[in-house]
Structures are given as C-alpha cells and as structure tokens.
Amino acid sequence: MSEATEKPNYKKTVNLPKTQFPMKANLLQNEAQSIKRWDKMGLYQKLREQGNKKPKGRFVFHDGPPYANGSIHLGHLMNKCLKDFVVRSRTVMGWDVPYVPGWDCHGLPIEHKVMTGLVESGKIKKLMDLDEDKRRVAVRRECQSNAEKFQKLQAGQMQRLLTLADYEDPYLTMQPRYEREVLEVLGDLCREGLVYRALKPVHWSVDNETALAEAELEYYDREDLSVFVDFECADADDVYGRFGLTGDDRPQTKPSLMIWTTTPWTLPANMAVAVNEKYEYALVRVDGNITVMASGLVEQVTKQAKSESVEVLATTTGGKLVGVRYKSPLRDDVPPADGPVDKVWSVVQADYVTLEDGTGLVHTATGHGADDYQTGLREGIGVYCPVKGDGTYDDTVPEWLRGMHVFKANSLVADRLGESGHLFHSNKFMHSYPHDWRSKGPVIFRATEQWFVGVDRPTKREDKTLRELAMEQTESGVEYIPAWGKNRMRGMLESRPDWCVSRQRAWGLPIPSFTLPSGESFMTEAVVRAVAKVVGEKGSDAWFTMEAGDLLAHYDASSDSEAPESVRTGQVKPLDLKKGRDILDVWFESGSSWNAVMRERSGGKDFPVDLYLEGSDQHRGWFQASLVASLGSMGVPPYKALLTHGFMVNKDGKKLSKSSGDTIEELFKEFGADVLRWWVSSLAYENDVKVDHEFFKGAGESYRKVRNTIRFVLSNLDGFDVQKDGVSLDAIEPTSLEAWVLSELDALTDRVTDAYEQYQFKTVQTAVYNFCNDTLSSVYLAAVKDRLYCDEVDSPRRRRTQTALYQIADQLSRLLAPVLCHTADEAYRSLTGDDEACVHLLEVLPKSGVKVSEAWAAATEARDAGLLALEASKEQGIENPLDAGVTLPDAKGLLAQLDVTDLADLMGVSEVTLNASIEKPVVHDLRDRPRCERSWKRDGTVRERSDGGMLSDRDARALGLE
RNA sequence: UCACGAGUAGCUCAUUUGGAAGAGCAUCGAGUUGAUAACUCGACGGUAGCCGGUUCAAAUCCGGUCUCGUCAACCA
After folding, report:
1. Residues forming beta bridges with residue A609, ordered by sequence position
2. Buried-state track A93-108, b at ≥16 Cβ within 10 A, e below 16
3. What does each C-alpha distance from A13 to A3, A4, A346 come to in angstroms?
C-alpha cells in the first residue's frame, strides 16, 4: 500500500471560494450593458418617482452648460464626474436630486466654424445674394444643425461616462422656451433701469466684426511698433509762459509735446494729450528740437533714442500744462466727433498717467481706449472712432489712410511722421496683446454703439447697484468651496466694467430693440416681454422672419411709460420701426439659466439653487454672469454655494495643450468609465490637476485591488442565504472578530458619508481603498480564510463570518455606487443573485451599531508587533507563519478577553498563547508538531483519524470523523 | 505687474485648532501556491522650496524671498 494513494485528498472537502463575479472587469463591454439595463428600467425616472419619499428632501443642483462644439475632453471628464458624484452621493444618502444637463448652443465658435465651412464649400456665394434677414436665417439653420450634432455627440459621451441626468429632456440655450426666459431676465433688467445703449470703446474683433467679452479674449505675445511723437504746440508763447520763460529766454524754435504710443494707428483719432498734474514736466532741447516730457523720464527717453545733446531749459508741473493747445501731426481738420470742436487737441489731466513708461504725456484717443473714453467723458471731449468694423479706416481720416487696415497703417503712420519730422524715435517690441479666442487674430479697441448692463447704476427695487449687491452677497450670501473662491470673486467684482451684452452676429438670441425713423434705438421692459412671448412660441428665428409690427403684436405702446414719446403717442407705429441687428452675449444666455431652467421647470421652487459646480475660470464667466443677471432680476444670488475645481495640467505642471494626450474615446477603450471615474475621485480637485497616461494606469491598479477584494468577499458567500443562514447583528459578541470588522465598517460609513456631504471625494476614495486593502484584504479576510474554508459549512462561527461579509459587500456596494456606478451595481446584483436588482435605487445602510470590545485595539497593536517578530524569526528558518506559534504580552489582560484562535488567525500562525509578564512577542518553532493535512495548521490537536489522515480536532469534526 | 492658489519620500497626496513627519504607488527583499494575470509580510526612502522671526515646541503662526500654475492687466 502506497501512502500517496491512501491519503484522502482533503482539498475537495474544503469550502473554497466560488463566484460568478469575474476578476477581469471587461468594462468596455459590461458598462455598455449596464447603460442599457438602466435605460430600460428608466433609472432616472424611477428615482424621480421615489423623490417625494426621500427622507432629506430635495437637493437642487444645476448644470453649467458646456459649449456644444467638438468632443468632450479631459476637462469635461473631471467636471462631469464631479457633478455626477454630487448627484449620486446625495441620492444614495437620501436626497432627491433632479439634474437637468444643459448645453450652450449659440455663439461665435459655432458660427465661425459654420461660416468657414460655407466659404470652403462655396455655398457662401448663394447666400450673399439673399437679403440680410434671409441670409442670417440660412446661417442660423446651419449653426443649429451643427449645435444639435455636437450636443448629441457630447450627450452620448457623457452617458458613456455613466453620468446620471435627465438626458431625455436636457436644456439647450437655443430652445424657444429657454430663449423666452432669457428675454424675461433682460426685461427684468430693463425694469430696474440697468440696461442702456452707449457709444463706448469695446474689445473688437476685426476678423469676426463683433464686440468681444473679457472671457472671449486670449493673450498672446505680439510684436508692435512703439513711437515717440512730437505734437507741435499751437501757441509757443503760451507754453513758454507756463514754463516761466520770459523774453530772451524763450527759444526761437516752436515747442512740442512728446507722446509715446504702441498703437500708431490710433494717432489719426487723437483727441487730447493727458498729463498727471502731480508730476514735474521739463522743457527740453533735444538735438536742436524743443519738446516737453516728464522730468523723470528725460534721461530714459533720450537714452533710448540715442540723442546726442540733451538740455533741460525749464520745468513746471503737470497742472500748469493743462489747457495747452497743440496741432495734430497727421491732420489739419478737427475730427468729426460727437462733441464740441473747441475741446479737441488740448492737454488734460488724468490720474492714470504714470512714469513707468513713455514720456508722461499720454496720447488720448477717446474712441480707442477705456481710460481715454473716461477722460473724454469727463472733459467733455467727443468720442471719435474712424475705424470700421472690418478694421479699416473710414473716410473721415486723411486721404492716404482711407480704407486701409489699421494694422497695416502702423508703419505707414510712422513713416509719414518721420518724413514730416514729428517722429522722435521708434522701435519694435514684444508684448502680450489681447486676441480673439476664435480667430486668434489681434483685437482692437473701438468705440461702437452697444447695449450695456450697468453695474454701477442703482436698481429701482433696492436702490443699490449690481456691484454693491454682488459684493454684499459674495461676502455673506454665498458659500464658497474652497473658501478662497470668495476672495477671487470679490477681486473680480471690484474691478469689473459695465457688461457689454450686445454682439453683431447672427447665431444667437436677438436683442429685441427697435430703431425709430429718427435713428434712435429703444428697448423697454414692455417691448422685451412682448417679443419674448413671440420667441417663446416661434423661436428666435421669428426675429428675422417676422416684421416689426408682428413681433410687437403683444405690445401696447400707449401704456408703456418708458417708450419714446413718438411711439407712446402713436405718432410712430410699430410698422415704422426697424428691427435692431444685435444679438445677446452668450454669457447673458447661460447666465440666465437659473431662470430658464431652474425656475421655469419647477414653477419657482428650485430657486435659488443649492449648488453650482464649475472650473475656477467661471468666476469670471458663468458664476459671475449668473450672479449679476440674477441680482438684477431677482435681487438675490441664483446659488447658495459655489464649488470650484482647478484645471488639468500635464505631469510637468504645464498647461495642457489640446492636441496632445489621449482622447476620451481612447481612454474609454483602454480603461473603461469606472476606472476614469475612480481616477477623478482620487483627485485633489481644488488645485490644478496633473494628468498623465501613467496616472490612469495607477487608477486601474487600485480599481482592480478594490474589485478583487469585493470579489473575494462575494466568493465566500456562495450558497449563503442571508435570510436563512445569516445571524442577527444583535447577537454578535463584542469580543468577536466580526464585532471588530463591523465596527470598522460603521466607521467607514461615517467617514464616507461625511466626506460625500462635504464633496471630499478624495477622502471617500482613500477611505474605501484603505478599508479594502488594509481592513479587509490584509487583516480580516486573511484571518477568516481558515474558518471559511475549513469550518463545517453550517458552523455558527462560519455563518457569523458570512453574515459580516454579506453586510460588508452590501454596504460597500452602496458606498461605492456614486463613484464606481457600474462595478457597484455589478457587485450588488451578484451579491443578491438578483439580476433585476439595482443598487442605485437604494440608500446607504444604517450603521450596524455592533458593540466592539476595547480589547480589539490592543489586538491590532499586538498583531503588528507579532508580525514583526515573525519577520525576524524567518532568519531562524520559520518562513511559513503556520509553522509558528506566538506568545503575546498581555500585561493589562485585555487580550485574555478574546479568543486565542482569533488572535492566531489574525497573524496567520497556528497557535497563540498569552503571557502577562513579558514585553515583546515570542515566536515558537512548531515545525516538530504534526501538521493538519486539511487546514495546514499545527494547533496541537492534530492526530491520525479514522480515515488515516492527520487532522486537527476542528477539521475532523468538519468531516464527521472521530 | 495684480489677485488667488501650490511647493512635504522617486511619483500622487495626507498631516483640521502649533505637540514625536504619515499613506498609497514605484523600487528592493521574502513568504504563499486553497483570492494565483491573485494574496501576505518586510525594507529602503523626507534638512517639509529657501532665509529670518515668534514659541518650551513650527510643515503648521508672522515677515521676506525663489519657483510653478490659474485668472487678469501689461494701457496710453
């Protein structure tokens, strides 16, 4: 008889883990199945039906609309995942969280792309034959289908990201009902007296022929020509007098005022020269010419121009120079501005004149600069802008400049000044300069008639300006997460200018203003509301297809006290009016979403919104646009809290370039949505976030760790029926291993739900990962393996363990559901064995409340010490922990309250004994003892049994052997 | 230049009000082969950007400085 054949094969008698839950996630395929399953069951709608039963009520969260153009990118990935974590975590914690996704559909990026396409395909020629309105409608059609196409593409990608939202009924800023509500907000602002039309210099794109908002500018380096120019004084004696020169002291040469500018093309539009009254100015003879500049800059300027002889003849203060009259070096006729002729071409005072650059005398073109405009306004100098929308001069400039593009004019102007002897010095230099975010071309400052929302005009309602209201609410009305957002917002509100809300394009919501036969524009609250009604019914195309009279069908001029007299009295009829040509700034549209989406859809109850969540750039964009619009309209902010996240940068901390890196589609394919979501949950999103392919791999690794841990838990619940086989949680003794692990689970529940509530998803991720990796995989699961495998299937100890495992798997699925929404659902269905089950309809379980003995704190410490001792004993040849026994110190008698088998299993050794009078664990070599052929333990009870095998008492009992 | 933020182990980040510098990953070494494209144990690794101050005690508070990022402004 050979031993090998006689010995029973105990492996078959061991309860080895078994599960359908695979190690390989195969997310690419399985996530697609999950999406189908959730769609089929109508998950979003089901949750809304549960809504009124939710214990914590409604949490109103509002999606900021991404632009409906192109594929989603990494920035969207982070933004949309964070938003989904909010929606799903609030849901799983007992709130009802309706969530309407939105898209920003109007605007230049789409129109620009469409126009480019029309030019390339040659279709543009046909359009040019149409009249203005028809052409615009045709372009708008193209834009609309373009926006629809990308909205659908992005919606699909967002769903592929497993985000939960009302994709059946999203909001699009081009929907008629949305447009109507935007106009209602505009009407509110008119009511408050905040909307006005004015000639004002604005950032102007010459490529796209439109005004641009701050948010539509990008800064690039640009080489420009800077020139020092002498403006000849009109009355030499007057100037010399101001410098205190008398009689013979006065030079024969006529004096000039030296100005410096980096935009020579604005010189034909010069209206004044500004000085600062507090500085000292010098009359200087430079290489034979007499000129004036700030004393403090004489050396710098003449050095730069390599002047050979420099002599200061006299000095005076800036204040004394105010009123000096001069001649334009470029033109003889006074520019035809909208102000008095006698104000043009004299020296004025301005605080913003500094001695950092230039000459201390500032060329002022009221139609081409914000400061210049303000100065002109104060001094009563007219605004003059001889530049047309396409960037060329009109006919009011000297003949040699007419029709020329301003950027070409730069060098020509300099040449001309050189020839006439007015150019003192010129040089090229690099500086960053604003550019059109779409065309990437440089922008200019150009005075145009625009519609504005005034931030420094008092509202009729509370007699406070929007700036005051915004500052107040920023200070105390809105919660900022993280807190520094408040400072950012405050800084931006302090310095923001009036809001230019008009654009001269086709693809947008028309501003419902009208022009009288006299040429005057007007727009009143009643006009806006009348048009809003039409737009709500027919869409904003109606503006282009309908006549003024029809658009104003709901307008009663006689009762509109704000209307011009001629309209109110019926002298001018709606039929006589011409429609305005401007459309609204898209930021005004998205900035009205709180009204067009949240108030409109909820009948008012979802306003103000609990939370807005966007990237930190939106302090200038959507956050601010929404705040200003809502304060004007409602007098309160549209949101109670603002959560901001940083931007994606590459692994060197540099700005992410759009062309490099992985596309979303590649990422889905390689990693799957759950891994991407897991990665997002690991981010310290309040700062800038580094992205690299390696980081996704890392997220994949830790995802697999969590997945495998859950898999192992599930695999030990094979055949376990929690109803039938589970033990009551109340019956779990505080000294049992299960009491310990369930108390750890309770702690995890607290930590995770707290973190979710504070939007600390990283904390959630770390806590769950550590629980799986440490509490479960390394400690608890390692300890209970023996009893799960080797105890009698039905033993109370094994059933108690399985009860804990079930509780763990159940709760982990729920805690993870907001982040790993596919995997958590997969695990939950595997756990319950019910393929129709869905974890997303459930909430986090209440804590088990199991009481745990204090001895467990001592036990985990003892375990650490024991493992170190075991490591040391490897040198003595005890390499397998089951070959060892350990005597643990137990001075306080705490460990004595516990089961020594539990302690042994915690360290994976065969036996633990306790000793109150030792300090450090002692390892015993048990290799002489017989080894149980089933459990491989050397626990001292192993002997030959009736089947001929060497078994411990426990294993013999499990097999029904003596 | 302005505002806001960030500099802690090779990498990603914790260290909540000042109280013995901690994880994970990576690297290296070992165990296990009944979670096996899995699991366990251990080791290595830091002058907390730099300088100064307050304090019994500073990653933490204060002042200065350097670097990086975002936003804005570089205008005349």
Report:
1. A639
2. bebbbbbbbbbbbbbb
3. 19, 17, 105
CATH code reported for the domain at A17-22+678-841: 1.10.730.20
How confident is residue A564, by pLDDT bands cut at 50, 70 and 90? very high
Tell me the pLDDT tens digit for each residue of A858-898.
Answer: 999 999 999 999 999 988 889 999 999 999 999 999 999 99
Give the DSSP letter of residue A655. B
- Are both A53-166+590-655 and A182-210+447-587 of the same fold? yes
Domain A220-435 bears CATH identifier 3.90.740.10? yes
Say whether the CB atom of A353 is under 7 angstroms from strand B. Answer: yes
For the CA of A808 and the C1' of B30, the distance in angstroms is: 32
Within 10 angstroms of residue A552's Cβ, the number of other Cβ atoms is 24
ipTM score assigned to the predicted complex: 0.94
Q: What angle do CA A850, A856, A862 make, to 5 degrees?
A: 165
Nearest nt (C1') from A782 Cα: B40
Amino acid at A118: L
Sequential DSSP letters for A625-679: HHHHHHHHHHSS-SEEEEEEE--EEETTSPBPPTTSS--HHHHHHHH-HHHHHHH
Q: What dotted CATH number matches A182-210+447-587?
A: 3.40.50.620
Q: What is the pLDDT of residues A97-142, one digit of tens each?
A: 999 999 999 988 898 889 888 888 888 888 888 888 899 999 999 9
The domain ranges of chain A are 17-22+678-841, 53-166+590-655, 182-210+447-587, 220-435
Give the pLDDT score at A661.
Answer: 63
Q: What is the per-residue pLDDT for A215?
A: 62
More confident call, A923 vs A663: A923
CB atoms within 10 A of CB A162: 24
Q: Residues A196-209: pLDDT tens digits?
A: 988 888 888 888 88
Within 413-442 of chain A, which residues have Cβ less than 7 Å from strand B? 431-434
